Fold this protein.
Amino acid sequence: MKNTLKALLAAGGVAALSIGTATTPAHAQGKTITLCWAAWDPANALVELSKDFTAKTGIGMKFEFVPWPNYADRFLNELNSRGSLCDLIIGDSQWIGGAAENGQYVKLNDFFKKEGISMDDYMPATVVGYSQWPKNTPNYWALPAMGDAVGWTYRKDWFARPEVQKDFKAKYGRDLAAPKTLDELRDIAQFFQGRDIDGKKVYGASIYTERGSEGITMGVSNYLYDYGFKYQDPNKPYAMDGFVNSPGAVKGLEAYKELYKCCTPPGASNSYMSEGLDAFKSGQVALQMNFFAFFPGLYKDPNVGGDKIGFFSNPAATTQATQLGGQGISVVSYSKNQGEALQYIKWFSGGDVQKKWWALGGYSCAKSVLNDPSFPDSAPFAKEFLKSMGMVVDFWAEPSYAQLLQAEQKRVHDYVVADKGTAQEALDSLVKDWKAIFKEEGKKF
Amino acid sequence: MNDLSVSSQIAYQAARMQPRVVRRIRGLSDKALAWLFITPTIVLLLAINIFPLIWTIYLSFTNYRANRPNVPMRWMGIDWYQSILTDPDIWSAMQVTAHFVLWTVVIETVLGFGLAFLIDKKFRGHGAWTTIILLPMMLSPAVVGNFWTFLYQPQIGLFNYVVAFCTGSAASSFQMLGDVRLSPWAIVIVDAWMWTPYVMLICLAGLRSIPDYIYEAAEVDRASKWRQFWSITLPMALPFIMLAVLFRGIENFKMFDMVNLLTGGGPGSTTEVASITLKRAAFESWRTGYSSAFAIILFVTVFGLANIYVKALNRVKSR
């Protein structure tokens, strides 16, 4: 009986192995790595792109994609619990300080040197934003993977209507076009608010107001930066008085509140990326603030895409800047497949791969792609993306970024959405909160 | 050796073993036997309840952060307790929690008792009505949260249409979840909708426990219906009502899921109950030591209040 059982097991094993070999050769070799990221359009593009990596190296790829609302919770828990689920992680730019200091990411300097990967080949803003910790020092913890920034979409088809054009000109004395300044943007949003388009009531703009994670901070930053807000004194780190709560920053916060109050759809008090997409795709709003990563998908949308959609980068006020999004790709230090994960990074940094990445819907950070003369015309949003990546500013990437973020979420939401206090009070309180957090961290200022 | 002989051998061994085990158990005293039975439960209780509690108390005196295992743990003494108890934002969260607990408990108790009183009367189809009324509490809070988020939607939500129809105002003229004045009430309404049936069930058990002969005696004494209600029904159902208040009070003090799904604590911090603040400190800011101290404060508050209440409940029961 034992012999019969052995024979059966052996036969079963051979059959299982042969089936495995026929479908996924890499699995048979036992080389499969897991890449963790958010579940969105660019992630699907990455799955497509990574097939070339498997074909070239025989290393299988598994993907762990988590929807944005749970993305940070899920993967920060994974990193903090020293889990080995992810071999590679495309983590948010703010995580880099904490992940570096807590030993969660593998430092890539030696690897880059050995493989001839140079950070000079990537857009400077993306290197600072996604790779470096401490910032502006040559310490690299990730390869810039997905360049992103906040931009705007507008209903080009509505803008082009003669009767709409006529009304707008009569009211504001200029042609209706993509705004160049934040004041123009407010005028346009106000113009469309409550307007009747094809028998349907439409609204001005969808902007970020979400309270729970990072939404309203990512939205309001685009106004604060434009009016002169700075995170700290450029000459004295962590000195925030007069920078975070400068008169300009106060004006920026007031302007964001004005836009929220005058020109957003009813019930938009807790909106972030997906709510913005819903509002735009369902034809509710004329303007939408959102990350560039969503624009390829919107352009393909049969109802609002193609000729109906236009794109513009964040308009100016006293200066012009925009909020950085995007992520770098890192090797998790708890991974048991670091060698294979590094192979993936090496492969991903290749010029042809970066070109294909952009073609598939991912946003390459490589200069070879972005500085190519044909790049601005390669997609309807490419020119605005390039312009945006030249003026991005990022939130604190300190290890305590989550606490800093929560403080801003609270102060800003309290003022903008809940009408609590004044803009000056909100920013003064924010400075107080941030000082307390940095004090607890042992920072001197 | 064939299969049959193997199984016979196992059966033989089992037969030999059994008397030995029985003999051993027979030799145990009652006390030892009791310990034998309750030890696994005690071990489980220690592992999943007592140890985490003691560990949390310990962490509440340190600067530990779950996301920074490399940073040496520092003893903080009662610093976190001091800073929590003097933090205006924490007191604001406690006020929001108290407001939420008070109104949900009052509304659920009044409605729950009222429904139980009505359902207790035998009428045609009362069984079906009971089932229908109980449906909301059988749903998952996640489903209820999402369901009501849509109902409250100012443009397409049914709730706004119903209110607009009744008041003559425009459906999109008010935002239940986005307005600082309305959002706390939006949560109270959902909680009352979901958990009133639970209070009703407990009250119904109380009403059904009142013997009929007491009412018959009251009828003989020509007591009015109001008098019967005031002198028999309410006092005899009171311990059950108080029990329902206790359960809902404790549950709502800890309320997280519904608030998180409906408003996430917003707009601003209008609906930020204590559990939301705690979650943010523990799992978003990763201040493990600080949030442990906050959790202990909340635990002691609930435990203290519940104890006072149970004493009052016992006094009512003993009357």
Notes: Confidence is low (pLDDT under 50) at residues 1-28 of chain A. The longest strand of chain A covers residues 32-38.
